[in-house]
Amino acid sequence: MKIRLFIILIGSLLQGCSQVDDYMLGKDNTPKPKDLKQIDSKVKLSQNWSVPVGKASKTNEYLKIKPVIRGDIIYTADASGLIKAVTIKDGKVQWTTQLKHGIVSGPTVADGFIAVGTNASTLALLNQADGKELWQNKVSGEILSPPAMANQKVIAKTIDGKVYAFDAVNGNQLWTADHGSPSLVLKASSSPIILDNLVLIGFSDGKLDALELQTGRIVWQRSVAYASGASDVERLVDIDSDPIIKDHVAYLGSYQGYIGALSLTDGQFIWRKPGSVYKNMILNDNSLYLTDSNDVVWSIDSHTGTVNWKQTALKARGLTEPVFVGNDLVVGDKTGYLHVIASQTGELLGRSQMSGKVSVSPSVTGRNLYVLTDNGMLNQISVS
């Protein structure tokens, strides 16, 4: 049986073969976070409520289990298998479901369903209204990225490079596609993106596939990054950030590869520049915002690829992907801080320390942040 190696990303762990060797031997070689310099705070972060929604976990730093807001409810998933529905107004728990297995991705909430991937290599679907488990299906490997849902179909990508489509109502498997994967991959993964009749999926070999939604047939394939180097570590070019689609353009990023804008009309790159990213990027107006693998925060012109600014003061702090609150950016870090950054200039505007590590990027409504910390607490934080 082929043995597949996974590397868990902790900060900028993969900076050289010796560090990887140390990590495999159980040594802590995580770079020391930069000391925080005193700043003149220009924003205020206030905690309104806090509620326990899971157990303390040391594994959240590579899991994509970001809470999802739908209407006045926020849905949370926990590595222990706990799923909760909480009102965003006051933090009251509406229902709780405990799955048999731990959760490694999700929740995805759509069409009245909730989908999660488990550590038993299964896809589980629940009823959004009451949390009742509807079905759970076995797949070939862990689903490390939140599944996609549309038109009563659930699309999931496994870490071994397979894509599955299931009927959301009855759980029947509709089709499967096998892209394959290298023997060494990052333990992170990008989600499928459903666009009209296509499913766009980034893979660990640096390729982007477009599959037909109804059949799984491959329509086209593009290479975003090319593996190079003497070792398997140097050849890692995983596409782990979700593709962003706007106006027939896909914005993509890969680890140790490139960040770029790909035209979906002719399959050509509009611009592409060297970069290393494995967390999700965000697009706002004419700028692309991202946290790279060294925890540098960037703003890049989405039309030309020109760098607007970069913020280096938070290096090695284990940053989350950025999110928008009003006109400002917010990132969390592994020491438990939230950092507010001006989206136009990259200036640090303020910070606040939470009760635990912030490994999952906050969810946002208006000026309120919903922050899931690694000690299992969900917190509502207002920014003013």
Low-confidence blocks of residues: 1-27
Spatial order of the strands forming the largest sheet: 2-34-33-32
CATH topology: Methylamine Dehydrogenase, Chain H
End-to-end separation in angstroms reads 55 Å
CATH class: Mainly Beta
General shape: globular
Which CATH architecture?
A: 7 Propeller
Please describe what this structure looks like.
The chain has one helix at residues 17-24; strands at 5-7, 45-52, 68-70, 73-77, 82-87, 93-98, 103-110, 113-118, 122-127, 133-138, 148-150, 153-157, 162-167, 173-178, 184-186, 193-195, 198-202, 207-212, 218-223, 244-246, 249-253, 257-263, 269-275, 282-284, 287-291, 297-301, 307-311, 323-325, 328-332, 337-342, 348-353, 363-365, 368-372, 377-383. By secondary structure, the chain is mainly β. The protein has one domain: 7 Propeller (Methylamine Dehydrogenase, Chain H). Strand 11 (148-150) and strand 12 (153-157) form a beta hairpin. The longest helix is centred in the first third of the chain and has 8 residues, at 17-24. Mean pLDDT is 87; it is low at 1-27.
